[in-house]
Amino acid sequence: MKSYITINEILKRKHFERTEVIAGEGGLNRNVKWVHVVEVINIKKLLNGDELVLTTGLGWKENQALFMSFLSQLIESQASGLCIEINTHTSTIPQDIIDVANEHQFPIILFHEEVPFVQITQDIHSLLINHQYQMITDLESYSQRLNRQLLEINHHEEILVFFQTFLDVQVVALFDNEIFCIPELPANERHILLERIQTNEQNGLNSIARQPVQVLGNQFAELVIISNDRELAEFDLLILDRTTTALAQHLLRVLYVEEKRRMEEAEWMTDWLNGHHSNVDIREHLTYVDPGLKLNGGVVCTCKLHLTDQSSILDKTYFKLHIRTIFEQQGFYVFPIEIRNHIIFILGNQRTRKTWKTRLSQAFIRFKTADFSEKLKLSSISFGVGKFVNHLSEIHISYKTAKETLLLQDMLTEKGKSYFYEDLHMYRIISLINKHSDLQEIVMEYLQPVIEYDQKYNGKLVETLKTYLACNGSKQETAKKLYVVRQTMYHRIEKLETLLGNDFMSSEKRLAIEFMLLAYDFLTIENHTQVLANEM
């Protein structure tokens, strides 16, 4: 399971039978990745760490200061240990050297007789290469077995169990909304372990390793391994890497299947909105969704999200989850579908039909009064609710009227605003006329003298006319609402009679003028909206 060996293992080799460890016994479990024969003093730049150094002491001979410099460089470079052949160029090891080595648990091993350094390096390097080959073989074997597992598993926990069984370490998988511990731990031990992972506490050993699980550039989880009785080796890290890749592949497959299911569902929903499904088709689908589901008609609610530069997918997701919960609490079964910046909710009615509008109105009130200042960064949201239909095969009618209602939202005055198609009354007729004829021309036919008078003299005849009609021709009430004196009011009415005719309050002409005033407001708001759109 490792591509290197420890000093303890090396001491059991043939050429180390008559050696003496004179310092750093606490470091005999250090790993050795390579062996160097060195006879120079300036060695720091020649080391990468975890080397066992063999020397006769030629570089320092009996110079203790040079010896101490040599030892310091080995320790700073994180060499594994030092083997010295005594009596060739060095006869004794000073106590200061031994003390420093013991302080850093840096092993110093003495050969008391001449030894063949070439044969030692050849022996240990062969051993290391064999370890490396075995590690590669084991890694390939694990990868093949893991790939076979991927073809059969149904849940990512099976990958984690296989991983843990192979390495025999504690495995923790940290997902956004779920944590897996394998093997499972009691609650108190689990809590301690998670705190240790969070602080990356190593307990004196390199005992924790972690790697993110990334799918399509996003981190879906983090895989952590913890060992309490040994230092994690290079092999452990390679196995962790292979397992993380396999886990990412499995999650990608799950996402692909889920996305395919969503696309199929979205396609079915789109066909439903377009009226391509019969009552039989819809009943079969609803039985598949929820066998006990019973719906008493339904209605479509379309939502347009006005995204800001700071808005994100997370904002959309939060909005959908929140508004869906509110609809469900008001007795609707929700079928959502997203089309560009529009989110469409098919609301299946689960309660009495008489109360559907009241319940939906309460849902909008709840949504508007909720605090989204921190959680939802959408500049504004427009709603449009279509016509309620008794048969779900007619949901396309509700969808068509919901889209029309949503389009009218930006054209309505504050007084005339409503989310519901059935409340728009005259505005639906105005919109229809505007589509198929020159509404501006019709409006000017009735109101042009009054509009031109206001433009020329900065007057307020249009406002006066609206208020006068709303007060059913009461001059006193009109003057009170406009905050003008009665004499001013009389003068304005006389001017309106001059411009519109003395009969402008007769029933038929009055009805036509009231309609044209609504149309005039509609056109004014529409023109203002177009100007803003052109400026942007």
TrEMBL record:
Domain PucR C-terminal helix-turn-helix: 461-519
Domain of life: Bacteria
Domain Purine catabolism PurC-like residue range list: 9-128
Gene3D superfamilies per record: PucR C-terminal helix-turn-helix domain
Pfam families attached to this UniProt entry: HTH_30 (PF13556), PucR (PF07905)
Protein name stated in the entry: PucR family transcriptional regulator
